[in-house]
Amino acid sequence: MSTTSIPPRHDLGSLKIDDSHRPRKSRGKLGLFAAALGALLLLGALVLVLRPQLPMVEVAAARAANDARAAALLNASGYVTPRREATVAAKITGRVEQVYAEEGLQVRAGQVLATLDCSQQEAALSSARADRDATAAAVSDLEVQLANANRELSRTKSLRAAGVDSQQALDAAQTTADSLHSKIALTREQTRAAGARIQVAQQDVDNCTVRAPFDGKVVSKDAQRGEMVSPISAGGGFTRTGIATVVDMRSLEVEVDVNESYIARVRPGQKVISTLDAYPDWQIPSTVRTVIPTADRQKATVKVRVAFDKLDPRILPDMGVKVAFLGDEPAKNKSEARAIAPKSAIRTENGRSVVYIVNQRKLERRAVSLGAERGSDVEIMAGVAPGDALVIRGPESLREGQTVEVKQ
Could you tell me the sign of the dihedral formed by the alpha carbons of 347, 352, 355, 359, in that order? Predict the structure, then answer.
């Protein structure tokens, strides 16, 4: 008996791994990782919160003891303003042909700043000249006619005297001559009127050229080539009313508002020390020029104008400035003190007066010798130099060498 062999079939189900032999993933590891990460974040936040904060201090610079501002009767602040300033505009409405003004340009009186399109004005000028020439030519023709009329009148008078011609003919000849006299006078007046129209047309042409009204410096360029300009507002945003702004730099002065309660301390001719905010160490000798004789009822102030004794190119319009009005004899306030500091900068430690100076964010403790008091300030005889940054407000626990934050 023969047996037929059948090849075995592969059972894919036999490849399945039993669940009992499958490696199990541990979900606890992921939880542990998240907890560790949270703990690290919490620890970092606690470090940021609990780390020691740098003490915050406020500083003020020590001033020179013989500074004239220390003896001031009154202090005020204001701005540099020019007495003579002009926004140069055209007298007519027209399109800007060319602009020669640029910011910072020094100009002379009469210097050309801009030109306008002048084609229409020049055409009107040519027409006025043609009218004058035509009227002047008519005078010559009338004079020729008058000469003939005078001869005709002379003959008519001779014939009338001889009894040949009538009185009517004589009157007609006389009327013709008189009429020509009148026409000639009228035409000459018309010629003068045409000349006046030429002057008007010429003025319109001249108005197309915008010139500087005085010597000064251009501080603003207000129009560009191709824009329309007009001496009055056109009610829209496409028409300029000015070409450029010129300032007479020789007329710069300080304008300050003084509280009316202290205006009695200010008088014309009084000496003043002006200090620009841009140059706090530069003291500019100045003098009160005038006290405006009116007060501002809303601010309760009186406007005072102060003139610089000597101008300097560093002084610019609209700069902030502080002024100190001096007394009659500021020299009496001189002393042997090295510096002046606010009273709040003085601290008492172990019965001695000390100050803390900030140098590159580090505190430096110095013992000082005090002098006379000057209002809210005090003289320092030794220990501090003008310009030192003194701590005027800060924690009581400050110490030598400590790092601090300076309040701005």
Answer: negative
